[in-house]
Amino acid sequence: MIFRPFYYDKGCAAYVFGCGSEGIGAVVDPQASDVDTYLAFADAKGLKIAEVVDTHVHADHASGARTLAERTGASYRLHRDADVAFPFDPLDDNEEIVLGNTRLRVLHTPGHTPESVCLLVTDLRRGPEPWFLLTGDTLFVGAVGRPDLPGQVEKSAGDLYDSLHEKVLPLPDELEIYPGHFAGSACGAGMSGKPSTTIGFEKRFNPVLSLDRNAFIDAVSVVPEKPADMVELMKINRGLA
Q: Distance between the two ends of the chain, CA-based, in angstroms?
């Protein structure tokens, strides 16, 4: 498998990966400012970008996903619950995306936003078991996504608890986790500067994952102040500006 994280100063991450044998791949959570960099990397690796995925409608940066999809002819993917003003190819829970020997399984994990997803990635050349999970803004290193963006904080926090405990934490402890953010981002409180982790590490050390549902809701409902440009960025990423 070809796999390359791209990390940014404001604590954001994007990912380019795919099947080197068949030369087909995906880009997840691309930034508008770095589209040419993803294209150059894919070209250098002989990788045709077939899928471009936003794990949710972002509130902290302008998404480059639609531009990247237009320039490559790839499908632009969001979960079908996404509230946007433009067409996209919808993702569904448990859907499988085939990229040669690289397989993605969609896990719908509402909480940070109603349309949030995680992507469970398997490399069949390595084996049949999943290798890593791209968690978007659902699970970070040492933290979880803020639940206040949809506006119903306690309900969203409860949805996030359910997503984590029903979809994410039952996965194997050794599974690698690559989040959409690390320290420096306002999309969660208390996240680590380390940009990757494992399920087992988070079970042991993430302070909110051991809380019961009510305590979790109380804890994660205390969120950082929203950055001044958050509302405008969400309008841009929804196609409303």
A: 37
Query: What is the helix (H) or strand (E) element at residue 7, kind and residue range?
Result: strand 2-7
- What type of residue sits at position 221? S
172: left (phi over 0), alpha (psi -120 to 50) or beta: beta
- Helix-helix angle 65-72:35-44, to 10 degrees: 40
| pLDDT one-digit tens code per residue, 78-127 | 999 999 999 999 999 999 999 999 999 999 999 999 999 999 999 999 99
CA distance 53 to 213: 30
CA dist., res. 176 & res. 200, Å (int): 9
Nearest Cα to Cα of residue 82 among 117, 119, 106: 117
2-237 — its CATH code? 3.60.15.10
Measure the CA angle with vertex 72, ends 68 and 50; round to 5°: 95
Tell me if the pTM is above 0.90: yes
